[in-house]
């Protein structure tokens, strides 16, 4: 809503040499591809406050577009939310003390659409599991967007968290059918059919589409296949899809100057994402030209927030008061108030509306201060939050 925000299914219970617990979360029911994507986006959106907040919100229009729904097709969204609320997640795991823990919960404990906003919640017990990086990893939405098969996405979700160990470990074939959502089908009771219709196509799509490559292996008792596992290796050609938010900024000259000044990696990427390279460069040049500043990082922070003492008295332009400037100020304030995952979703949604490569490049460089997209940005935020632009349209 990873982003973003998920119904990752993990493999069978495994126990490491140092007794770190690894959960096995299984989801009953047969989720469609769009329902899987919806679950992931909702989790990514909620992840930053998953434990601290009992409820979460996301713009319904943004949510629909991020997962491929028609933004006006609220009936389909309602149906999918209902499906998530009716789907059961079950876990079986060892805690830090080695004690067995079993639990069950619906994927969503609550969902509501009101005033163009989707509000939803997870049960406290499930939220705790979803937030634990030892249970599973968030799925990058750049990768999720590329999947066209629900079985392939389900397989990817189950395998991705084992990329560092190189194998999922052995899954009983009955469990694998359940993870793929084909349990209860007499047709897929025959491994020949399961392999031809589910395993081979899903493995091919995961290896072609995502940042990992899978190789299935089976184990037999007599002539019957009883277990399956997947060997996992990184896909070097598509590894770029796994970059975290703001990763591309690390290759720019402004990022290098910020790092040389002592700004942390995360803060540098956050500033560049929020303000754009041009704005950060201007403020950085201003701060670097100041003498007698004890903490240039602190001063730069204040400058980017428009609070640097004496800034307007030393050659920097005074704070503008035109409708356009006020509109931009409100937009940047709205952006800053969003969570990192929401900001990522906003940028992706806006980018998806730019067909012209020149406009996309300008937005990538300048962010929400993109001069070539000023009118489009204003319209975007007007749709997102009509009250935001109130009394600024007199320009």
UniProtKB/TrEMBL annotation:
Instruction: Mention any Pfam family matching this sequence.
Output: Rep3_N
Superkingdom of the organism of origin: Bacteria
What InterPro entries is this protein classified in?
Initiator_Rep_WH1, WH-like_DNA-bd_sf, WH_DNA-bd_sf
Report domain Initiator Rep protein WH1 positions: 18-159
Q: Which family does it belong to?
A: Belongs to the initiator RepB protein family.
The name this protein carries in UniProt is Replication protein RepB
Q: Which organism is it from?
A: Paracoccus acridae
